[in-house]
Amino acid sequence: MRQSSDRTCLHCKQAIRILTLTAFFTFSAAAFCSTPASSPAGGLDSAAVAVHNRGVGLMGQFDYEAARREFSALAQQHPDNDDIQVNLAIATFNRQTKGDEDLALSILAGVFKHNPEHLRALYCTGLLELRVGRPAEAAEYFRKVIALDPRDAEAAYFLGQCLMQLSRYEEALGWFRKSIEGDQLLRSAYYNVFMALQRLNRRDEAAATLKDFNRLKEDPRARLLEFKYRNMGRKAEVTAVGVDAVQPVPKPAGPVFGAAIPLGKALESVAWTDAGQVSFIPVHMSVVDLNGDGHPDIFIAGAIQTSDGTVNAILVSGSDGAEYTLRMDHPLSRLRNVNAALWGDYDNDGLTDVYFCRQGPNQLWRQVSRDQWRDVTDETGTAGGSLNTVDGAFFDADHDGDLDFFLVNADGPNEFLNNNRDGTFRPLAAERGLGGSGSHRSVVVADLDGDRDLDLIVINRKPPHEVYVNDLFWEYHKAQGWEAFQAADVQAAVAADVDSDGRTEVYSIDSAGTITRWQREPDNTWGGTPLNRGLETEAFRVTGSVRMAVADLDGDGILDLVVSHSSGWWAASMGSKGLTPLFEHRGGEGAGLDAWTLLSSVNGPHLVAWSRGRPPYEWPPGAGRYPFVTLALSGMEEKGASLRSNSSGIGARIAVRTGSRWIVLNTLRNDSGPGQSLQPLPAGLAGAGKIDFAAIDWPDGVYQTELDLQAGMFHRITETQRQLSSCPVLFAWDGTAFRFVTDLLGVGGLGYALGPRKYAEPRPWEHLMLPGGILKPDEGRLIFKLTEPMEEITYLDAVSLAAYDLPPGWSLTLDERMATGEPEPDGSPVFYRSFVLPAKAENGLHQDVTAAVSTRDLTAAPPGEIDRRFIGRLEQDHVLTLTFSEPLDSRAGRPVLIADGWVEYPYSQTNFAAWQAGADYRAPTIEARGADGHWHRILDRFGYPAGMPRQMSVPLPGLPEATRELRIVTNQEIYWDRLGIAFAEDCPLVARRELPLVAARLDEIGFPARTDGPQRLPGYNYERRRPRWDTHFMEGYYTRIGPVEELLKARDDALVVFGPGDGVTLEFGEGLGPPETGWTRVYVLEAHGWCKDMDLYTGNGDTVEPMPHSGGKSADRDILHETYNTRYQSGRE
């Protein structure tokens, strides 16, 4: 969700809706571009050109059907225009409806009649032949493309793919290497070199290539080739008409910063302290919107002289965002001995809080309402001892959705305070080996190893420094390969991705003023490169104590460096060859800045400063800048909703795309400290009028894109609160359309974390009774689609469909549920003739909910107040007491509880967050009250409906005599739709028949639209599918597109592997004829397989491997996997 404003204001109008990412990994290296396709403009009048360009635009929005209609009309009018025909073919095969590949091939065949060497027609034909499983034929087309265009890296890659499928590994290897020669950012080619070498048993070479592949893993410029529009190569994209080359916009003339000016006239009469510096750390200054008015305010520690000592300066921005006034009456002003302030929302209530690092006990102040503050140090346990805390970091260390503290102590061990999310914090540094052993100076927080979690660098006053790698679950280990950095003279350091390659660099300055860039080398060691050593220029001289920051100062989309010292400050751009001066202020020895920070605005950074004995002042943005946009991120979409990322947005990573330029930013601290501001991010546009798109990785792993962010405006972006994972979603043909049924195989979740290194045991099968009337034959076949519209993967082993014909008066349910306790379900049918609903149902508040649980209508009994800290958990137990009109032992048969309903699942990281807070999830327990008037526990935490709306059952053994009341108790967010008791009996006349699986096909079907109704009721619309969505892919090989019935006919652990945007169409032969008169037919789908999501805490959640198995491996399993699982995917959609 995004809000925009043309000024720095947080109360802004709603902006355009979020759209899917259009070109994140799609541009080619300029050094190896293919020959441009010819323009189809020849012979077209202006009206036809407009129609054509509209089609191109629709393809860019992935509206393939609409684009096809435009191209089809033009193709009929201009049958001899080969380029239009090719564009029509491209729109056709991307539409992905039945027969589209054959139709596209026939269109392309028509082109060859006019022009047998049409490059795009040859290339697209090769793609289609490969896609439909004819690699030998495809290879010949790609060879023709390469003969005509020897520089086409993409054709070389796909030729290698063809040869791999033909088991000609040595030839394939050569073509993959040829592809890399042409495009060194083509990540797919590196992986396929690795795979070819593996097949050739050249293990050492393969290992070296894998390092190159992993080096590109985090680079936003790197790209994959796959069968998706914009990812299939330049020759498989439709071409526009009359597009002129984009000329670079000249940089505006003038300085990057203007002349220094006071922050406000009212500040000139204040008694600013001129006392000498008493610490080795710089004076702290930070920026935050203190009172929630949308304007940046300023905090300066110990800057005001009063009769009884120094106090803090609280500078509040005026309504116009310019003039500042001093708030001496502010409660945060009077705190003494403050070294630094850390700003952020620790309790996720939408109000910014502050942690003060002090000489002596630290203090945490909570903003209880707008600009109303309260000291909560004692009740939260956050004082951190009586040490001299000189710096710290406010960030989500364990990625559980709340902010934690790392505290740097100059005179003792460091501390890590973990947020328990119950209003208290837990000290962990000693327990987890983070205390350190030196005289500590500052901390740098960054993802140093590219694994999505945040690591720590502790800068000490003297080496060695300390580097800790985050392993999640509160576990850290000392980093390897950092020996050179740890031994270096480092006075200040900051982390950034200046070259926008997706990998963090660290920039440091030593006591001699040398700026060093530290980067991860191919051997995973970190080496340093001096950036200003040997530069004979006065601009880079430094004296005395130093601070540094990185930010884009001139708006060119590249991060620059700011360095202060005792004589002034300077700014420089950082290139591959070193530093280039941008701005310098030199006031003479002793005339440096005692405190300064960069303040964000829609015109880019200001430098705000304070020197002892004088009012604060600023260097405003100068004329020599390109336009900026300003971005403010928040994990909170609406107050009261469950959160997955912290509401301050701290730790989010943003890759900004304008034209062909990338800039990679994050919301962590961008300076060397001390302390931490909380303010929007400026992003320079290098003359562009807008950001084409910003791709955001939130701290919880959610991936989100925003389009068309206009220059010169403030944009507030909140995390899209959507379901990232559950399990595959099932649709059934109902005679007119594919109708959503429910999800499937949630019981087979792999790596689902229950707590630290504790994972649920997956059950790799599920039997699903289909709702009556939902399944209708189509030309003698019963058809299902099992789809993946979320960020997860399915390993499907086998699927079968059984039909039960029941005699008159009989019904069926299944012994099915997500089992969390005894008894274990076995999926068997449970037959009954007698079923009773409760005469009365009452919740724990003594409210009558009888109507809600008596009808299967997707309106459930209200579960009670949601615990917004933890997805799927309630604030209090949900108690349902069911009263029946007669004793449950008065009828023949075995009593069975039948429940229709659905559940809101927590994620792995949610379970970890709840574990650390001591907040458990208690599955439903059933108690019964019999003739003795006492409640007896019948089933303890037995289980619940395994996902989206479905029916479950559980037997009720050992009911007390004359039981008429049952009580169900849970604190899980379960929606009970209908509850009743069946009385199970044997049914000797039932007829069970298994229907044959006659066809199964895997396709990239896109993402069916999700709807969320009242009570978190999920729904999906197959007819409204998006071809793309903001999602990641687990790295590895997926099953190729095409027929897959060979993999699904038996439980043999030969798996169909499919992920986001994929779907398997299952067709069963019907051929049963109608049931006998009065009889009822019930269909049961029996699935065997697993699923896995990409939650940071899910075991092996980043990779397809290891492949699961249930011990039933067939001798042909590996051969089948090698044959079918050839589609490599990784990274983002």
Automatic annotation (TrEMBL):
Start-end of each TPR repeat: 119-152, 153-186
Region (Disordered): 1108-1133
UniProt biased composition (Polar residues): 1123-1133
Domain of life from the UniProt record: Bacteria
Keyword entries, A-Z: Signal, TPR repeat
InterPro entries: Crtac1, FG-GAP, Integrin_alpha_N, TPR-like_helical_dom_sf, TPR_rpt
Signal peptide: 1-29
Listed PANTHER family: CARTILAGE ACIDIC PROTEIN 1
This protein's name: FG-GAP repeat protein
Species whose genome carries this gene: Syntrophobacter fumaroxidans (strain DSM 10017 / MPOB)
Upper lineage: Bacteria, Pseudomonadati, Thermodesulfobacteriota, Syntrophobacteria, Syntrophobacterales
